[in-house]
Specification:
The complex is a heterodimer of chains A (171) and B (246).
Chain A (H helix, E strand, L loop, with lengths): L6 H27 L1 H4 L5 H5 L8 E8 L5 E2 L5 E7 L4 E7 L11 E8 L5 E8 L8 H9 L7 H20 L1
Parallel strand pairs in A: 4-6
Antiparallel strand pairs in A: 1-3, 1-5, 2-3, 3-4, 5-6
Chain B lengths: L1 H7 L2 H33 L13 H28 L2 H32 L8 H22 L3 H15 L2 H11 L19 H33 L4 H6 L5
Helix pairs in contact in B: 2-8, 3-4, 3-6, 3-8, 4-5, 4-8, 5-6, 5-7
Classes of the chains: A alpha+beta (171), B mainly alpha (246).
Chain lengths: 171, 246
């Protein structure tokens, strides 16, 4: 008994591969058709373009813009701006914010978009990026003039600059 | 190479070779998981934002790796069984399924526990979490199919087909965080490419991942050995092994 592909085995192999390929195409087309529903949140650009429904529960996501968090000292009310560095979305919320909430942090807010263009949030969730670092490293970066809130923006800036440099050298 | 794979056809040969390999994988699993968990939980630095709750990564990521790898292994075994009719492949696939389901549950559960302090919620229907939940149901489906037929051949064929078709979900899990907006962040731990954490956090995580893989191999070998004895119990070599009774 050897393992060579006899005609019978080859036929079985092709039937199976064909079956899996067809299933993959079906799943792929379904996901493609549903892509806007699979996205967890609308980004401010999409909201500014009018893609999000008004006065229905939606989720919006982006970064908390630096220097925009305004807390009411009397209550739990808080207002801040969520940005994707292209468009901005004003969010008003009353409640307890997650520990990771801060300026420059990614957030997902659940709530209703008002016709005036701001979002009344029922829930605020913090996103976390894929980077972890010890507090000492964060402190060193801070002493070098980077606030922890800036890391992501700084990383994006550096990446942009490097890309521009690369384009400059290749041209 | 071919002669090696040819030998895998024989349950007897598998039984003999796995007996020699098994202790090594048990020792590797115990040592790596012990070193990795002590290092990760006690000595690795805390995260600047999450503090100590980030240490859940040392269970969450290895479990999620295994959950996906076991499903792929099961699909490969299913293909080998369906095309070449190698029975050992089917036994290996059958023995992997419960461990895969357990690992999927562990990654979902540890992720939920981690989500409460970090995100502010334990569950969100985002693409990564949902596709992982689907993986859990696929595992349950494979296990249920194996129990649902009176004929073992039909059960094996049905479970193999479900595993092979279900493997389509694996790239969806992997790339869900890149294709769609999700609450879950993109991958931190990569063996190649950019790593989102310093060495003193990454090395214990690597050790834990290797330890989990060794554990998976050891458990699969051990369970397949007892399955071979069960399925081949009327074969001469098994009866000789059992002391020639009857």
């Amino acid at each position: 008994m050897t393992l060579s592909l006899t005609p019978k085995r080859k036929q079985r192999l092709f039937v199976i591969l064909g079956l899996v390929a067809l299933a993959a195409i079906a799943v792929g087309l379904t996901l493609y058709a549903l892509r806007s529903n699979i996205n967890l949140f609308f980004s401010p650009v999409q909201i500014a373009a009018g893609d999000a429904p008004i006065e229905r529960q939606i989720r919006a996501g982006g970064m908390v813009k630096e220097g925009t968090v305004a807390r009411d000292p009397e209550s739990l009310d808080v207002a801040f701006v969520v940005t994707d560095y292209v468009d901005d979305l004003e969010v008003r919320y009353s409640g307890i914010l997650p520990d990771l909430f801060r300026e420059g942090q990614g957030v997902v807010v659940v709530g209703e978009l008002q016709s005036e263009g701001w979002l009344r949030a029922d829930q605020v969730l913090a996103r976390h990026d894929e980077n972890y670092m010890p507090p000492e490293v964060a402190q060193a970066l801070e002493e070098a003039g980077y606030a922890p809130e800036d890391y992501q923006a700084k990383a994006a800036e550096v990446a942009e600059r490097m890309e521009a440099q690369q384009q400059g050298t290749s041209q | 190479m071919w002669s090696f794979i040819n030998k895998l056809r024989s349950p007897k040969w598998f039984y003999a070779i796995s007996e020699r390999l098994l202790p090594w994988f048990w020792v590797a699993a115990a040592a790596l998981i012990l070193v990795g968990s002590v290092w990760g939980l006690a000595f690795a630095p805390a995260d600047y934002q999450q503090g100590n709750s980030f240490r859940i990564i040392y269970v969450h990521v290895p479990a999620a790796f295994l959950a996906q790898s076991i499903f792929v292994s099961m699909a490969v075994c299913g293909l080998v069984y369906m095309v070449w009719k190698i029975k050992v492949a089917d036994m290996v696939a059958a023995m992997m399924a419960p461990l895969g389901a357990a690992m999927t549950f562990i990654s979902l559960f540890s992720g939920a526990v981690w989500g409460v302090p970090t995100w502010g919620t334990w569950w969100m229907w985002d693409a990564r979490l949902t596709s992982m939940l689907i993986l859990f149901f696929l595992y349950l489906g494979v296990i249920a199919l194996r129990g649902a037929f009176s004929s073992r051949d039909s059960a094996s064929r049905a479970a193999s087909v479900l595993a092979m078709v279900g493997v389509i979900n694996i790239p969806i899990i992997k790339y869900s965080v890149d294709w769609w907006y999700t609450l879950h962040q993109p991958a931190t731990f990569t063996v190649t490419g950019r790593v989102g954490m310093p060495m003193e956090m990454w090395v214990p995580l690597l050790i834990m991942v290797l330890g989990f893989y060794s554990f998976f191999i050891a458990v699969t070998l051990m369970r397949t050995r007892s399955e071979i004895l069960r399925r081949e119990s009327n074969k001469r070599w098994v009866r000789d092994l059992a002391g020639g009774e009857r």
